[in-house]
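Good morning,

Attaching, inline, the backbone tokens for the sequence recovery test we're adding to the shared suite. The designed sequence is right after.
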């Protein structure tokens, strides 16, 4: 009679070390990327058929639906806006500003903010919109 060798008993569990390594790498990745994420105000942008995607400038003014202002993600009052903008625009070659305003904001406030930005030295004010989808026309 033929005798076969007994099969070697192998481990019956998975090696969790590679999976733990991957999980920790993902955790580190998301922690590092969240540090550099810019805080944004909840804004519903108006839509435009001719909107163009541009590179993000360094100075962004946000106006939320309740009329509160932010400068690069930090809350600011309208009285502080001119001085802060003047300091940030000082010595810059391109004095571009990006304006994001909720579509429910009173238009007079938007014009007032644009006027303050011009007085602070801004050359170009880009109003941010969202691209209209064909079914919304």
């Amino acid at each position: 009679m033929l005798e076969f060798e007994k099969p070697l008993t192998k481990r019956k569990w998975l090696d969790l070390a590679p999976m733990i390594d991957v999980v920790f790498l993902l955790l580190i990745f998301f922690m590092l990327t969240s540090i550099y994420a810019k805080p944004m105000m909840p804004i519903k942008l108006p839509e435009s058929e001719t909107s163009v995607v541009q590179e993000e400038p360094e100075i962004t003014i946000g106006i939320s639906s309740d009329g509160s202002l932010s400068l690069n993600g930090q809350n600011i009052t309208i009285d502080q806006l001119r001085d802060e903008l003047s300091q940030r625009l000082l010595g810059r070659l391109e004095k571009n500003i990006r304006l994001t305003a909720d579509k429910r904001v009173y238009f007079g406030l938007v014009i007032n903010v644009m006027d303050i930005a011009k007085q602070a030295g801004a050359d170009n004010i880009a109003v941010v919109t969202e691209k209209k989808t064909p079914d919304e026309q």
